[in-house]
Structures are given as structure tokens and as C-alpha cells.
Amino acid sequence: MKFINYILFSSLVVLSNQMSAAETPDQVQAPLPQLQLMLAGGGLTVCSSMNQAHCKPGTVFAPWAKTSHRYEISHQSLARLIQQAAIRDLEASTRQELLLRLSSQAPTVLSQKALLELIDGLTESLEDKAYYALLDTLEQRQRTESGELVREQVQLDAGRDSHGSDIFRDFVSQSAKNSGQKTPRIAVVTASARDPFEAAEFYVQTLSQAGADVIWLPIDGAWQQATQARRCDILNLLGSQHNGYFDRMRVYPKLTEQQTAVCHEPGSLYSELEAIDGLFLSGGDQTLTLAAWLNADGTPSQALSILRSRFNAGNLVVGGTSAGTAVMASRAMITGGTSMGAIRYGISSQAPVSERCESRSCQHKFPAETLTFRSAGGLGLYPFGIVDTHFSERQRQLRLVLLQDASRSGLALGVDENTALWLSNDGHYGEIIGAAGVWFSEPQGKAGTIWQHRIHYLPAQSKLHLTELKLIEVDVPVWTSGKCPNSATNSTGWLISPKYELNTDKHTTCDSRGYYRSLLLNTSG
């Protein structure tokens, strides 16, 4: 694809395409900075036995491949269930009705859908701890006919859409380039997931097949609490209290044993963090991710100090997807809510409501769709402000700019699914890869009651220079002519309130595929 070519001076600020006859490209063009931070927008399309919709037709999996969650209802599983404190704490009538319905089907094995249909009507009265205790405790420990434990199988080369696998391969490639290692050593942290043990197999296999030597680091919020308190004996209890997972020793014995061992010897985890070439953070819940890296008082843990030190020194490539990207924010970190929720209910600097409240009635001081954020930010590896994900797909533009205004943050980013933005460790140089694009909001200040923003939506293959407050394009794919949207009633599909006005000016250019540069967005109220 042809590009608009600019000459990039060593300052990476002044762009020019004019050189004197005495100058050569080698004399003028500075080397591009090393890419160290990968921000993926989630929805990465990778073929696996648990995500066969992403696989090419005819893909065959091994006999040991896990294809679904199954739930066993038996006298043994119900005996385990009634021992869970979260179940014992239910109102007596709810507990009795729940056990009556379950025991009426024993013995049997059900899909998750069938299990929830069996207890239909009761899930409304189950708080998160009871709900997840039910699922985790009844989860069947699946085995093959030969007795081998089943586990998810990844087939990286069998995907219908290569963009997801290409993003993982690129992460491995950049880790190798940065470290000089042909086969880089990459650590995976799955603390974003409610059940970090379940997610481990997918990421380890994916990055291994992409060409890395991969390890799983069993760090999560419960691990941090247990390590600091020197109470590894109650690690499983802390897992249920802080992360919401139960009975994992039965389903994932090797992984839980590994977590316990590293709890007793945390120095082994710190040594791994000092030695790895890349660190990848999974998707899930960015609040859970952050808890894995902070002390109980909210200060940086020893693990986070190592991570930041190596990243800032240029010795570690860090990446994440979905929540693993959102947690990279500085100044303010989005923790929940929707664009419509931000309009209707405002912005709240406090812990988010459970995601389950979006589909059921919950008694809480604010609605589940309310835009919530952590004012102290996340890991801070993206230095300028807020990062959001699943962006165009979930129409998150307004929740991003409203939080940008409220938190006085700098350049805000929104990354589409199956897409990634690579940045240098100082945040000033970037490249976009993947299926779609990245949305940038430059804060323009406030005029009266109106907040002003300059908006850019740029596609894969763009190469960019960023400052704290604005974006400067270096190389952008040649655009085909297109009509720019010019009002809040246009067909762009994401401006959902007359309080928000989208306009063009003399700097605005648009592409027929839907990309644009230098649109003006005004927000009021």
C-alpha cells in the first residue's frame, strides 16, 4: 500500500519532505524508536477448542482438548457445595430451593446453559460469591477415556482470521528484537480473569506457538495479599474473597500448587520478572489486574517496581489485551460503565458495580452502566492518560472523552478489537497493526461550558508520533476520497446525544472506509 511520505527528523517533531541536494536520506532520517508497549483492543481471533468459531472449517482437535465447561450434579458435588460459606450464607429458603432443584437431577452432567436453566429464577437472588461458588464447585474435572485431564487446545495456524494470531506473533517478534534472543522468554499473567487458572492454558499455548519460551506467573490479588501477610495457608480463602474463584485446587491442581509454592518463595517470581524478555497481561477485569501489582495499601508492590524499572530502562516489552490494555492507563483508569451510562448517570470515582448487575436487578447506590474510574490510574505505562478497548464495537467514544474531561487527562486512546497500537516506552512513537483502527482524542480545552476535542481515527499500518496532548502523523496509508461526517445526526453511529456535536474544519480529511483525521468534537453538559 502506498503511503504519504514524510521525512522524520531526529526530533520526531518537525516533519518535512524537503532535503537539500547535499543531504542524503541516511544523514537526515533518524532510526525509529524501539517498540515496547503493545495495547491490543481485545477480541483477538485465535482458533482454539473453546473458541471454534474462530477456526477454519474442518479443524480437528486432539482427544484431550476441552470444548466446553461441564457441571456435575452428584451427592459428592452437592456435599462440596454446601460446605462453601457463600452458599451457607444464603437465606434459608433460597438455599433450600437451590439444593432441592439440583438434587432433583442427580446424578447428571450439564452444560452451563442447562445448569442455569435448572435454577432459573434463583440466580437473581444469588450475589456474585454464591453464584461463582455454585459454578466453580459443580464444575466437572473432565478427563479423557485414558484418564488424562482435558485442557483447552490452541491451533494458532488454523484461524479463519489471521489478525489475532498475527498480533500475538508480533508481540513475540518485538520481544525477540528488543532482547536480541531468537526465542524470547515471555511471562503471562492472567490476573484479569475471575478464574486466572482457567485462562492460563490459552495464553501459554498461544504465545508458545507464536515462537516464545512461555511461563505463567501465578500472581493475582489473592497472591499479593497472602504474600504480604505471610499467610500462604489461606491463599485459597483469599482467592474467594478478593478474586471470586472457588475450589480451584480440585480442577487445576498443578497450577494451584504452583501458586502456593511461589507464595512461599516470592523471590522466585521476582527473579523471573528480572529475567524475562516480554510480559503479557490477559483480558478480563482491569481492577483485578491492578490488584495483582499493588500492595494492600495501594502502593506499588515489589513486582510492579521491577516491571516499571525494566520497562523504563528499555529492557522489557509489555503487552496486554482488553483489560490488560486498559490497566496501562495513567492519571485515570476506566473501571466500568458505558457511553450511555455516562450520559444518563454521570461519572463516579469508585469501585464498579458487578457486571452481572447489567443483566439482573441489583440494589446498589448507582446503576451498573455508570461510568466508573480509578483516579490514581493503572500501571501507568501509557504515560499520557486514558486507554480504552473494544472501542468502535461497543461505541465507547463518549465514555472516553467524558472521563478525559473529568480527569484532565492528556491524549486519550481507544483501540478497536483485533487491533493493536504499539508504542515506544516513552509513548512518543507508535504503529498500528491488525484488522481495524485506533481512535485518538486530543483535549483542546474548555470554552464556557463546552469541552473541545480534536479527534483522529487511524487505520492499521499507520505510523505516528505522539505528544502528551496531541498526535502527529508520520506515515499514514493513502486515503481514498470520502465524505466527512459533519454533525451529531450523521450516520457514524456513535454520537448518541444532541449534547455532543461532531464537525469538520479546514484540517479535516476523511477516507471512504470510515477513517478520519482532525474532526472536532464538542461536549456539553
Relevant terms:
single chain, 525 residues, 10-stranded mixed β-sheet, 24 strands
Descriptive report:
With 525 residues, the chain is α+β, with helices and mostly antiparallel strands. The chain is built from 18 helices and 24 strands. The strands form five sheets. It has a ten-stranded mixed beta sheet, with helices on both faces. Strands 14, 15, 18, 19, 22, 23 and 24 form a seven-stranded mixed beta sheet that branches. A three-stranded mixed beta sheet has the order 11-13-12. 48% of the residues are buried.
Q: Major sheet, described briefly? A: 10 strands, mixed
Strand content: 15-25%
Shape: globular
Report the end-to-end length measured between terminal Cα atoms: 43 Å
What kind of oligomer do you see?
A: single chain
Number of helices: 18
Secondary-structure map:
Layout: E1 3-4, E2 7-8, E3 15-16, H1 25-28, E4 37-40, E5 70-73, H2 75-82, H3 85-88, H4 92-103, E6 108-111, H5 112-118, H6 128-138, H7 163-179, E7 185-189, H8 196-209, E8 213-216, H9 221-229, H10 235-243, H11 248-251, H12 253-264, H13 266-275, E9 278-281, H14 286-291, H15 302-312, E10 317-321, H16 323-326, E11 333-336, H17 339-345, E12 347-348, E13 371-374, E14 387-388, H18 397-407, E15 412-415, E16 419-423, E17 429-434, E18 437-447, E19 450-459, E20 463-466, E21 471-477, E22 500-503, E23 509-510, E24 516-524
Helix pairs in contact: 2-6, 9-10, 9-12, 12-13, 13-15, 17-18
